[in-house]
Give the backbone structure.
Amino acid sequence: MDTLFAKLDDLQDGDILVISGSIPNTLPDDMYERIMERLQGKKIEIIVDATRDLLVNVLKYHPYLIKPNNHELGEIFNTDLNTRKEVIPFAKKLQEMELGMF
């Protein structure tokens, strides 16, 4: 983790960081949160592609972009989403959750 955080510290304003996928069980469950907290105050655009709690828990850091697919979005709201029409209201709801975390 020290090596990872040292590399994160080298990121500069204007850089883009993508964090995605699951976290190995050898790392803390809040790893994405730790990464985003460490980068607070830097002008780095962070894109998050993760499932359920990994994604929801980083919303308070206002990532530049989040990319849940329909299955991941459905997991967050405990529902099945199969069509674009079904996805849209839940995507808006997730967006409202992020905006409400100031």
Observations:
- The chain has a mean pLDDT of 91.
- The chain has one domain: 2-99.
